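Format notes (please read before filing issues)

Several people have asked whether sequences and structure tokens are stored in separate files. They are not. Every record keeps both together, in the order shown below: the sequence lines, then the token lines. Line labels are part of the format and must not be stripped during preprocessing.
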Amino acid sequence: MPSTSVVLATASYDSLIRFWEAPTGMCLRQISFAESQVNRMAISPDKLWLAAAGNPHVRIFDIANAKSTAPVSSYDGHKGNVTAVGYRRDGQWLYSGSEDGTIQIWDMRSGRIANYHVPVPAPVNSVALHPDQLHVYCVDQDGRLQVWDLMAAKCMTEIVVDKESAARAVSVSNDGEYCAVSTSKGECHVFALERAPSHAATPTTTATTSTTATASTSTSAAAPPDHSKRSGEFPMLVTTIKAHDSHILQTLFSPDSQYLATTSADRNVKLWAVNREFQQHKNLQGHQRWVWDCAFSADSAYLITGSSDASARLWDLSNGETLKQYSCGNKAVSCVALNDCN
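Then the structure lines:
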């Protein structure tokens, strides 16, 4: 992985966010986040800002200014643990999901909620933005997947993935073809994101199309657009993978949409080949405790993982070997973030 213009960060239960020189494993900078644990982090597309999701705030830190240790802004609209955070592709807004049962969209220019306050029936565990930038996918503690249309401000699809298990993580492939939802049972459910024909009724899956749930907005929503021309709103289950022997903690498609990564409490990190019907491609072994998070490099050739064994690892996915191990004190690593885009 090239060393120039690489932003790599880890967060640990010792209340520290660390920035690393990826090739050498040298810690370049530390920021204190003493008020709570950091559940999730995201780096802005321009690599200027780091968003850290805690309890109950999202704090924004200046990446470029090495002397800056205090957050430059704080998003305080949630009332519970913030479990998901991410940027829109153009960096104009940020989304967050929380155990308070809401998803919020934040205007990066003003630092305020951008007219959206999305209600979810249960604590939100994970949120993913569809590559069309018009739909958000969220999963919750009751095992539910919802697809929200940001233009219409409505929940378009709701699927109970597993009535007996929490849905822990959701990811949407960059080509818009698949959505993956993982559960506390160690199962990963893969959905094809079909476009519904203009005459179609609700797809014949466990999904039910919501016509009543709406986001709270400060302006009246326009008439719903023609959804037959937009992808991502009608997930169709294609396979269920018995991926791990314990909870799946993170699920993520590679940027090239060729692989799906899952991390687990069973200490394993597994790669699944999309073009081989999600057969197992590699099992990355080395962590000694739960593996909480992962992040791909932009070229999909490398993977960063963070674990309760107080370390992060950089994996070469061509051979499944650890290239570098980052020692993060003596507390669990709760999340990682990587941006090495040119």
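For reference, the curators noted about this record: The first strand starts at residue 7 and ends at 12. Residues 45 and 117 are 24 Å apart (CA to CA).
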